[in-house]
Each structure stands twice: as structure tokens, then as C-alpha cells.
Amino acid sequence: MLDVVYVLDSAQRPCKAASPSINETSFPSEKRMSIKYELKNLANGKAGVLNGMSGTIGPNVLDISHLTRDFGVFTYDPGFMATASTESKITYIDGDAGELLYRGYPVEQLAEKSSYLEVANLLINGVLPTREELDAFQRSIMHHTMINEHLLRFFQGFHHDAHPMAMVSAVVASMAAFYHDTTDIRDPRHREIFAHRIIAKLPTIAAAAYKHTLGQPFIYPHNDLRYCANMLNMFFAVPCEPYAIDPVVAEALDLLFILHADHEQNASTSTVRLAGSTGANPYAAISAGVSALWGPAHGGANEAVLTMLDDIGSAANIDKFLARVKDKSDSIRLMGFGHRIYKNFDPRAKIIRSMCYRVLDKLGKSDNPLFELALRLEEIALHDEYFVSRKLYPNVDFYSGIIYSAIGIPRSMLTVMFAIARTAGWVAHWQEMVSDPNMRIGRPRQLYTGAAKRDYQPIAKR
Ligand code: ACO
Questions:
Q1: Which of 25, 78, 140, 171 is the most core-located residue (most Cβ within 10 A)?
Q2: Cα diameter, the chain
Q3: 144, 339, 346, 429: which is the annotated catalytic residue?
Q4: Going by C-beta distance under 8 Å and a sequence separation of 6 or more, which residues neighbour residue 429?
């Protein structure tokens, strides 16, 4: 039973709306500590001050790092609904406005004008690269695409029907056993080599996983191709005939990758940070992120959306399906809808939906029945009180599976594609964390509700 009541009160709540600056590398501490809150234990009258912190934009946070020392309590926040786990300069989301910024740049502008490798460089380094810097980065990425032949043989150990995400996560973790020249995470050059290597090799690993499921020979990377064109070649070329890379498909892939490149402290990125915070080998940390991404509540949703659309079958069945979704005794969800942060349109979903029209049209697949069904499902859901009242909108995965499928990516590879794209974000966050001299191991606390201390009973007495 609780016998202590705390009152949390804010003394002042300035709302900072300064425009983000890529050159701003640190905030003066006075700025960060300008807001104060009072926390009072109503049972004994003990009060204390908690400092608020304000970032460049976005909600203020409350610094509770001394809460346990000063008040003897921990915070309780299942699912981290109200917890900022770190300070970060990489990505900003305004969930109410449906806004996403990478290093301050709106994702819409990057989607229109940039390329995936430029975005990866931006995420990792914080500034848009010059022509020379970008050329050097692209050259470095495209000259680290091969994987060690011994690592390639790992795939032979997997069953033919192993899920590609299982293979990718295992092989990425295994990279820690091969690349020993990047193990000093305190050395910036080691970190850079790791970053280039993982971004360069993940498409090769993904393609090897795909070829293994098909039973086809592995296709080696071509370093004279661009990042996404090379990936398509490794996925779809076979040694016995020429394969022509469709520039429309390569461009669509590059755009999808930009949209998936980062999303601040999401589940998989937080997993990479947590695993990396122990000082673990960075490949192992990225592998942990791949595993976390796989779940249907996260990156696995793109595959789940297509399965759901197949199950619904036709527009005539939408009402029946949504009735099940709204029925609390049924665990089924409208996949590709809802988001922890976005309580308005996910800006990425908007871009991907309009891209669907363009790409399907260019590929001569405008009458795609899954796309038609998804559009109708979205329209009905967005007018339904259940979804309206809960602010549930299509997220990035509602349409991404349709477009990936239209460009020939098989369903089991959809989350792998997401993993390749998100690697840029994972690397940027890992770099940000380990280059911070104040990095600490991530170690949350708990509210223990198990048995109190008790004595062991011999088996005969139980
Ligand atoms: N379908 C039906 N109801 C939903 C959905 C959905 N897709 N999403 C949320 N709700 C309902 C919940 O049942 C809950 O209702 P209640 O208040 O009556 O209990 C309310 O909306 C809030 O939902 P939570 O689960 O508390 O929201 P949370 O922030 O924890 O979950 C999540 C977010 C996991 C994305 C959720 O919306 C979901 O499961 N969506 C479907 C899976 C999906 O598309 N995931 C991809 C997300 S994008 C990404 O990770 C790349």
C-alpha cells in the first residue's frame, strides 16, 4: 500500500522554439537548467527541486538523475511512454505536427533532393557533406561491399526456409568474429571503419540470405554500381543471363531507404544503444538492433501489412475485419496503423503513398489490387470513430510493403530492407553514444512484485 504522495509542480514552463542549427554542437548548461520543478512528498513534507532541461525544439524534460539519491524512489514508466533515455542531436520528430527532421532537415526535402548515402553521411557526421566528402564516402562504402568468404559459408548452415531476418541478425553478429581491427570503440578511426563496413556489407549479407532461400548462387557485389543498383543486382541477377537494373526501381529503393534511415529512439535504435552501452562489439550491437526490428509492432509490420491485406481479400470484407480490430476480446490489430509518437499522419506514409502511384504507374502496375485495397482500408479507418479518437493514422509500414513488392522484393525480405536502411541511423546513434566521454551503461530499474524473501522447501514438503 502506498502511504506517500508526491506533488510534481513546474515553476515555469518556457517553450523553446528556436530553429535547429546543425552547427550547434552543445548547449550552454544555464539554458538547459533554466526550468525548475518542485517535487514534494506529501506524507512527510520533504520537498526538493528537479531541474528541467530544454532542447533545441520539442518538449522539455525533467532531470531525475538524482531522484533516488534525494527522494529514495525510482520512476515507473512501462514502455518508456514518458522517458527520454538520452540526449541526442540526430533526429527530431514532432508527432502532433507529423514532422520528421534528420539533423534539422525535413525528411520531405531530403526525399526529394538527396540520396540514401548522402543521408547516411548526414546522420553520422551531422552536416551535409561537400561534393568531395560525399564522393569519398560513396567510394569508401562501395569498396567495402564484399564479405569474408568464410562468413559467406555461414549461410550453408541455415535451413532453406530460415527467415532472412534470422540469418541477417546471426551473420551481422558473426562479423564481430572476423573484423578485429575495429574493436577499440574509443578510437574515432576504428568507429569510422566499422560504420563504413556495416553500411557497405549489409546489402551483401541480405542478398546472400535471399539467394540462400532461393537456392541460387550468390552474386558478388559490383563496386561500380550505385548502392541500391548494386543491391538489386545482388538480389536478382543470376550467372546464366544478363540482368538489367531498372533505374525506376533503384530510385524507388533509394527513396524508401531515405525514409527509413532513422527515427530517433525507436525500439531497435534503443536496443543498439543499450547493447552498445556495455562496450559490446559494435557488430553485436547492430545485430541486437536487427533482432529488435523484426517484431510486428516495429519493422516487422511491413510484412504483416501484406499478410493482413491478403487475409482481408477484398474491400467487401473491410467492415468485418475492422469490427474484429475494434473488438477488445480479439487481439488482432490494423497493421501499419498507429504509432507511439505520431498522433497525426506519419510524414513518411504520405510520401510513400504518393510514391506508390508514381512507381506503380511507371512500372505499368497501376491496377495493383493490394494498393487499391489499402487505400480503401485507410479511407474507411480514417472515418471510423475508433481510429479517429485514438489518433491512429497510417505509419511508414502501411504502404512500404506494397511498393517493395511492386519492385520485386519478396515478402520475407521486407523487414530486411528496413534493416539495411535503418543501419545508417543505428550507426549514427551508436557513434553519438560511444563518442560521448560521459557514456554510461544503460541499466533500468524495476518495481519488484514477486515473492518476498522465503525459505527453500525440500521437494518432499512441497
Ligand atoms: N489497431 C487497432 N488498435 C490500435 C492500433 C492498431 N494498429 N494501434 C493502437 N491501437 C489502440 C490500442 O488498442 C489502444 O487502445 P485502448 O486505448 O482502447 O486500449 C490505443 O490504440 C493505444 O495503443 P497502444 O498499444 O497503447 O500504443 P503504443 O504506442 O504502445 O503502440 C504501436 C504503438 C505498437 C505502433 C501500435 O500502434 C501498433 O501495434 N500498431 C500496429 C503495428 C505497426 O504498424 N507497427 C509499426 C509501427 S512503425 C515502426 O515501428 C516502423
A1: 171
A2: 80
A3: 339
A4: 88, 90, 262, 265, 269, 272, 273
How far apart (Å, rounded) are the C-alpha atoms in residues 93 and 307? Answer: 29
Element (H, E) at 136: helix 131-142
Considering only residues 33 and 190, tell me which one the structure prediction assigns the higher pLDDT.
190
HEC states along 162-212? CCHHHHHHHHHHHHHHCCHHHCCCCCHHHHHHHHHHHHHHHHHHHHHHHHH
Mean pLDDT of 126-148: 97
Can you give the pLDDT at residue 176? 94
Measured by CA distance, the residue closest to atom 28 of ligand 1 is 340
Alpha carbon distance, N-terminus to C-terminus of the chain = 30
User: Could you tell me if 301 and 337 are in contact, meaning their C-beta atoms sit under 8 angstroms apart?
Assistant: no
Give the mean pLDDT of the chain: 91
Pocket perturbation via mutation, ligand 1, pick of 312, 337, 396 by most ligand atoms within 8 A of CB: 337
Strands 35-41 and 47-53: antiparallel
Nearest C-alpha to atom 22 of ligand 1 is from which residue?
390
- With a 6 A CB cut-off, is 299 part of the ligand 1 pocket? yes
CB 455: neighbour CB atoms within 10 A? Answer: 4
pLDDT at position 25 is: 45
Partners of 37 in the beta sheet?
10, 50
Ligand 1 pocket check for 396: Cβ under 6 Å: yes
> What is the pLDDT, as a whole number, of residue 181?
79
Using the mean position of ligand 1's atoms as its centre, give its distance from the Cα of residue 340 in Å. 7
The pLDDT confidence band at residue 8, using thresholds 50, 70 and 90, is low
At 408, the pLDDT band (50, 70, 90 cuts) reads: confident
397 counts as catalytic: yes
